[in-house]
What does this fold into?
Amino acid sequence: MITNLFYTAVSPETAYIINNYPWGWTLKTQQKVWIETDKKHGDRIVRQTLNPKNNVWCKPKKSTYEAIMVMGFNEENHISHIGLWHSASAEEVNKFLSQINKDKLTEAQKNQLRIIIARNKVYENVTFTVKNVTGQTDEEREAHRKEQEAIQYKINNAIYHEYKNTKV
It folds into this structure.
């Protein structure tokens, strides 16, 4: 369980500072931790450690993107996060929203949330059929590809319209 969420560590300047962070076997130093947001890809945790030998910040280490992340502390009082993947289900979205203060999310995070909610709503009405395409002619394959592109266009259009009407 992640507790004591904080929403303001969004850059190296506003990062959460961990003191007495271990460096090697005997030395201690500082580590900065923040959430970096990219409007297209989402959020990721960034950690940067201060080299205690020369007082120069090391190269930042970046995690994998998730759609939305919020930092807090885990049971051992270590920095951790809760988040949503781009493919989160409606149930996962509801659980996430019950744990955070959505008013404290950035606009980019709210947009990611709107995309996930819109996608889930549209895909509630989408069904998939597996079709054997072995032995099709080139013309049949091309017709199938065009049909699939048209269907995907309709789905994307529905997601866009749902996104425009989704309030967060």
Notes: Residues 127 and 151 are 11 Å apart (CA to CA). The longest helix spans residues 138-165. The chain has one domain: 3-123. The radius of gyration is 22 Å.
